[in-house]
Design brief:
- The chain is mostly beta strands and 731 residues long.
- 3% of the residues lie in helices and 64% in strands.
- A hairpin with a 5-residue loop joins strand 33 and strand 34.
- The N and C termini lie far apart (116 Å).
Length: 731
């Protein structure tokens, strides 16, 4: 188009708008728009100014940017303001079309978008600003996320947008920031390739945290329909490669929705660790996911767990089940249900039910009262713990705070009994790198602090594994009672503990003893199968050793305990034949006592263990045999009771001879404890073979040395009428 022709068109438009203005002024209303054309170039199928010109413009050099916003063949931008009836050229970013603002070149300068729910209520605001252009293309912009009142909750920046000769992206960087503008993460997309049909073929992505340290790498591949065919994810810890995950075997339904895929996790050398098969994906009519299954396997291909997920038609998780496997067989199940959400789609409640292999309910946990900060991070919730019948066992109040990059900074848990009395209190602190820096654990009696346990001085190796820390035990007033220094942690290639040392000190910091843990071995499920503990006195002399063995289910199968005198084995105690109930509680085992040469001296068979709803012992039986295995006597323990701290308050012991005849019985009661939960006193009532009360002993003022060994106590003996018939002090 010649310059003269263009001028004629503009003059026509000016004259036309004079007419429109005159006409509309009389009617006190201007046209709301100039045409019904779509965004894009003018043409015979997309004429411009059709609502006001009898001969609309069809010259393709005219371009419609948005309603009432146009770019002329000379690249000038014109805007029609329906409020004033004026059609004028833009020289600054003054064109406002709905939620969009454009600059003088007709380029988007800002998009202030209200995100609403189905009822029209504002949920939050997406404010797109900071558009940067090069050669007519966007190379950067920032999304400012605001709450419904306009307060900033985060920033999401797109920058370094690069293009291929065909106009497609070759790469860009996506940066997230918190409300204060601090970088929390960055994602760099590189080497974007495409098929001839325009579909994405592949690309790479590099992730870094708020400090600029690499956290992950991705290599994506797509099929010719633009669907993921597979990818590799390389996880980095402290900037170093720590895990590799390969995703493959993607299948899709007729609607292009994923129906199945697999994931294989490997160590840094490429050795297979675990695998996960995702299958059975189903969808609602609108494409929202309805459910899917996941099967987990160890390095040997043995099933270790199965998940079944369910979603409501709004895309929110409604529940799922997790079945635990041992040796390829179901051993238990966790069923999650009752999920509910707030208007922002955040979880506010759900429940978990634990079941045994047969599907019998064992425990139930209810999580409610979730609260969130402005970044939608959980800052608090409540947990109610119930037994199989629904009776409340305890309550938890949980709290969280975070660093600017979203990592947990603190975590607290306050536990209370069914009546609301506090029983325990945990307060954890974390480093900016996400590692525990220390925590404090307090126990309570009758609502008052009874003991304090401080864990501090955590140190870590280059893999982020703990290599040392200090445990300090204090009384209710904060006075140090003892301390334990953990050092020398070592790990295998899979990051599992191999060995460590615990050095014990008294209240003054003087060495008391040490325990050396070594020789840890593991099965394919990373459960410990064996380890050794060696005890030494303050002078470094060996006093005892323990060799533990575990079942595939992680339970003790047996162990050997040896005592030493002057560096030589003096006694051997073998514990074997452990059996367990469906709750994983011990119901029986055999103790065999031997001399230093391994010759049997006696044995003790423990059977009949029963437990209350809190998993505490109620009763059991011990049968004693001599060196040849002949029965000698038995002891039946019954009626165990406990205080709020789960400390024994009373029980009864009945003694019988080899023939099963009762020889005596004893009722233990009136237990008292010190701030370290050590027994300071108790009473024992004696009964004869006929069950007649004969006498009792009161044991009081039990005292301990810095190592926790009993050093003295007072005793008083009384007859059945309560008359003192003897007293003394031990030793």
């Amino acid at each position: 188009m010649s310059k003269k022709a263009f001028i004629r068109i503009i003059l026509c438009l000016v004259l036309l708008f004079i007419q429109v203005t005159v006409f509309s002024a009389a009617a006190e209303k201007y046209p709301a728009r100039l045409d019904s054309a779509r965004t894009g170039n003018a043409g015979t199928d997309n004429p411009l100014f059709g609502d006001i010109l009898t001969s609309p413009l069809v010259n393709p050099k005219w371009f419609k940017v948005d309603d009432n916003l146009y770019i002329s063949p000379t690249k000038k931008t014109f805007f029609y303001d329906s409020a004033t009836g004026k059609f004028s050229r833009l020289s600054t970013a003054v064109a406002q079309v709905g939620e969009r603002t454009y600059d003088e070149k007709g380029r988007l300068a800002r998009y202030y978008h209200y995100v609403k729910d189905a009822d029209g209520n504002v949920l939050y605001i997406d404010d797109y600003i900071g558009y940067v252009y090069e050669n007519g293309r966007v190379v950067g912009y920032t999304l400012v996320r605001r709450d419904k009142d306009g307060n900033i909750t985060g920033y999401y920046q797109y920058k370094n947008m690069a293009y291929r000769p065909d106009g497609k992206y070759s790469g860009y960087t996506y940066v997230t920031r918190d409300a204060g503008g601090n970088v929390t993460a960055s994602y760099e997309y590189r080497n974007m390739e495409y098929y001839d049909n325009g579909k994405t073929k592949s690309y790479n992505r590099i992730d870094t945290n708020g400090s600029g340290v690499k956290t992950g790498e991705y290599d994506y591949k797509f099929d010719t329909d633009g669907r993921v065919s597979g990818y590799q994810y390389r996880q980095f810890t402290n900037g170093a490669l720590s895990r590799i995950s390969d995703y493959s075997g993607y299948t899709y339904n007729a609607d292009g929705k994923v129906t199945a895929y697999s994931r294989v996790d490997k160590d840094t050398l490429g050795n297979r660790l675990n695998s996960y098969d995702y299958s059975g994906y189903s969808y609602y009519a609108d494409g929202t996911i309805q459910g899917y299954e996941r099967g987990d396997k160890n390095a040997d291909g043995v099933v270790t767990g199965k998940y079944s997920y369910r979603y409501s038609d709004n895309g929110k998780l409604s529940g799922y089940t997790y079945k635990i496997f041992a040796n390829g067989e179901v051993s238990g199940e966790y069923a999650y249900s009752g999920y509910s959400y707030d208007v922002l789609g955040r979880t506010i409640a759900y429940a978990r039910t634990d079941k045994d292999a047969q599907g019998n309910v064992l425990r139930r946990y209810e999580y409610t009262g979730y609260s969130y900060d402005l970044q939608n991070r959980v800052i608090g919730c409540s947990q109610v713990n119930r037994d199989s019948s629904g009776t409340v066992l305890s309550n938890y109040a949980l709290g969280y705070s975070y660093y600017s990059d979203g990592k947990v900074k603190t975590y607290s848990r306050v536990e209370s009994d069914p009546a609301g009395n506090i029983t325990r209190d945990y307060a954890y602190n974390y480093t900016a790198g996400g590692q525990v820096s220390g925590y404090t654990y307090k126990t309570y009696t009758n609502g008052q602090v009874s003991n304090i346990y401080d864990y501090s001085g955590y140190t870590y190796n280059s893999d982020g594994k703990a290599i040392g820390y200090l445990q300090t035990n204090k009384d209710s007033s904060g006075r140090v009672q003892s301390s334990y220094t953990y050092t020398g942690y070592s790990y295998d290639a899979q990051g599992r503990i191999v060995s460590y040392i615990r050095n014990d000190s008294d209240a003054s910091g003087n060495p008391v003893r040490s325990h050396i843990y070594s020789g840890y071995t593991y099965d394919a499920q990373n459960k410990a199968t064996a380890y050794t503990r060696t005890d030494k006195d303050a002078g470094g002399n060996t006093t005892a050793t323990y060799d533990y063995n575990y079942t595939a289910g992680g339970q003790v199968s047996g162990y050997t305990y040896k005592t030493y005198t002057n560096g030589q084995v003096s006694n051997i105690y073998d514990y074997s034949g452990y059996t367990y109930n469906s709750d994983g509680k011990t119901i029986g085992y055999l103790q065999t006592n031997k001399d230093s040469s391994g010759r049997v001296q006696s044995s003790y068979t423990y059977t009949g263990y029963s437990y209350d709803a809190q998993g505490r012992i109620v009763s059991y039986i011990r049968n004693d045999s001599d060196a040849s295995g002949n029965p000698v006597r038995s002891y039946t323990y019954t009626g165990y009771s406990y205080d709020a701290q789960n400390r024994t308050t009373a029980y009864t012991r009945t003694d019988k001879d080899a023939g099963g005849n009762t020889t005596a019985s004893y009722a233990y009661s009136n237990y008292t404890y010190d701030g370290s939960n050590r027994v300071t006193g108790y009473s024992v009532k004696s009964y004869n073979t006929g069950g007649t009360f004969t006498s009792w002993y009161d044991y009081t003022n039990r005292s301990y040395d810095s190592a926790g060994n009993l050093v003295s106590y007072n005793w008083t003996r009384k007859d059945a009428q309560g008359n003192v018939i003897g007293s003394g002090r031990w030793p």
